[in-house]
Amino acid sequence: MIRTAVIGFGVSGRIFHAPFLAADENYSLDYIVTGNPERAAQARAEYPHATVLATPDELFARELDLVVIGTPPATHAGLAAEALGHGLHVVVDKPFAVTSEQGEALIEQADLAGRVLTVFQNRRWDGDFRTLRRLIDDGELGRVHTFESRFEWWKPQGPRDWKAHAGVAEGGGILYDLGTHLIDQAIQLFGPVARVHADVLRRGAGDGDDDTFLVLAHENGTRSRLFMTGLAALPGPRFHVLGDRAGYTKHGLDPQEDALKNGARPGDDGFGHEPRDNWGTLGVRGETRRVEPEPGDYGEFYRLLATAIATGGAPPVDPRDAVDVLRIIERAHAQKGDLSR
């Protein structure tokens, strides 16, 4: 079994990593690292066979194979470099790092060490994204000219915990948070990006963005319009995709995150399946049909990772893809597109 540690037991470690590691027979969840006493108590209650440690320094002296990093973005590069230096395989939650330069340095270090380094872009395994990719690959939409993708929250009180204070230099703001998913999905569907336009809104005193709109001009001619916000009192469609044969509109988010927060676990009956009200619509005006989304499956990331560790094959997410995402975020932040100033 792959001896594994999770560093951080906030939403990332507790919701997105520990449940899937515990459910996969390829892994043993041996250590959980958190300096928060309440989270430490929760980790002991939920995973009694794991040893809970207060700091990463206590961890790296232990016998391990894999470290999963689910801490705030400003710590990602340092922790990943330390883990690689100890000869460990590494999963870094998104965003991979704060800068593309940091990401490139980690990739070089992993290559020299001969270790697997990957990034948890779990939204590649959202059911609706998997469905959209299939529709495009099957030619149902024809040539896609417009891709609209939204990830919207209603958080009028603003972000909490470390997100409330982190600036852009620390990986704060919604571009580093939700934008990382939306940009990665757009590139996966339509390839490299030639041009980037960004409009951002900042409400607080810091420089972290709350509401950002990106337009990506892909080299293949597709335009991706990406909306990310914490100010959506009423959300728009998750996907609105227009091709020269048909369009596809889908409302509602993949249900895996909410299910996990409500106590569900991978393998539960119906896990990853969307309600019928959230099914997408495919077709042209006057001639449409509903499309049942494929089940979401974040666990596939860890199944693919186990194979990569065992065989030396490709990781589930190439970290170079994550560097491409960071470059686009850097280009967006460099623009003078701030509508709040």
Automatic annotation (TrEMBL):
Indicate the segments forming the Gfo/Idh/MocA-like oxidoreductase N-terminal domain, all copies.
2-119
Query: Gene3D superfamilies under this entry?
Result: Dihydrodipicolinate Reductase, domain 2, NAD(P)-binding Rossmann-like Domain
Establish whether keyword Cell inner membrane is in the entry.
no
> Cross-referenced Pfam families, in alphabetical order?
GFO_IDH_MocA, GFO_IDH_MocA_C3
SUPFAM superfamilies in the cross-refs: Glyceraldehyde-3-phosphate dehydrogenase-like, C-terminal domain, NAD(P)-binding Rossmann-fold domains
Q: Where is the composition biased (Basic and acidic residues)?
A: 251-277
Query: For this protein, what is any one GO molecular function term?
Result: nucleotide binding
Q: Where are the annotated segments for Disordered? A: 250-294
Residue ranges of the GFO/IDH/MocA-like oxidoreductase domain?
129-247
Keywords for the protein's UniProt record, in alphabetical order: Oxidoreductase
Record bears the keyword Oxidoreductase: yes
Q: Where does the signal sequence lie?
A: none
What highest taxon heads this organism's lineage? Bacteria
Q: Which family does it belong to?
A: Belongs to the Gfo/Idh/MocA family.
- Name it: Putative dehydrogenase
Q: Which organism is it from?
A: Amycolatopsis thermoflava
Taxonomy, top ranks, is: Bacteria, Bacillati, Actinomycetota, Actinomycetes, Pseudonocardiales
